[in-house]
């Protein structure tokens, strides 16, 4: 969530920053509610101070033999006022929290306004492959080599699903094992989270309540806060690992990665450019997360971007890195760089990793803090995440960029040890 102090005292800055994300918000109601709450809080604190003072004097009056019945009646009336004020405070706080929880994160100041059209390519890695034969698309290549069974995936589950078969399953598993080994070598802790999460995790990650319709819910209670959902990304679990806790500063930065299948309703349309494995309801992903102090945050972001790009580069795949405009960043994120992989048959780049910094937005929602070693006071951490990597667009890129004239697919050298030394899928 956005800092209440900032909302209250730098309203114009907040409005202008949110407008860069395409969120044009009127803060008048919030400011009115906030002012009411602060005035009421001062009033009830005065009542409570009076009650405490009188309560401490009653024993003295009794000891002195003075009547106290009238005082008890005054305290009863005062108690009713306090109860009424507390109830109103709770009501105001709920309205304020609901409003603030609905606001997206503020983009970092250096981000330009607008959507995809204003994204900036900051780095290009490798060259686009050039073929001296008629190149095939990944659907045909995967079908003819028998590594992906699209037809039976649809038979089992409908559009947006596929079945890995034989060497296709081994290629998928090789990718995941390659990523895992790389992250362990970089000192990240391996996490296998639950795939079913509670509402609090979606809220803490900033995905709920606005995007609660984009996940698969498991339970049927009308109150979704009592239900569980299938995780859309391991980030949703990892950024909530220390929710409600205060972490010693010397434990930061914390570096995690997790493997999980990911489940998403918002798979979108099935146009020609989205066919095959480009967009689906279930896919495998290794996710990286760092929990840091605000000072460590920029360095952590650069590290995650470099790690994601390095994985694609080690696979020998042409790709680029794009800095997203404010409006193309997700609601929870202050900045995002996409690692975009080249799909030759489409003639376009597709995102295979988004590396993002939420700053303190998620930490405020799930109350993850650290103890400042200098002041001894708790402060909110920063949370960062990045795919490291998702496989559903990597395999199309691999089979297309590594295809041969006879329809076979060369296995990237770094994956061969995970596939029993197999060099070519025929």
Q: Explain this structure to me?
A:
- It is built from twelve helices and 17 strands.
- 38% of the residues lie in helices and 20% in strands.
- A hairpin with a 6-residue loop joins strand 13 and strand 14.
- The strands form five sheets. An eight-stranded mixed sheet has the order 1-10-11-12-15-9-8-4. Strands 7-13-14 form a three-stranded mixed sheet, with no helix packed on it.
- Helix 3 runs antiparallel to helix 4 and helix 5 packs across helix 12.
- It is an alpha+beta fold.
State the main characteristics.
426 residues, alpha+beta, 8-stranded mixed β-sheet
Distance between the termini: 52 Å
Largest sheet: 8 strands, mixed
Overall morphology: elongated
* Helix residue percentage: 25-40%
Strand order across the largest sheet: 1-10-11-12-15-9-8-4
Number of strands: 17
Decide which structural class fits the backbone. alpha+beta
| Strand content bin | 15-25%
Uncertain residue ranges = none
Radius of gyration (Å): 27 Å
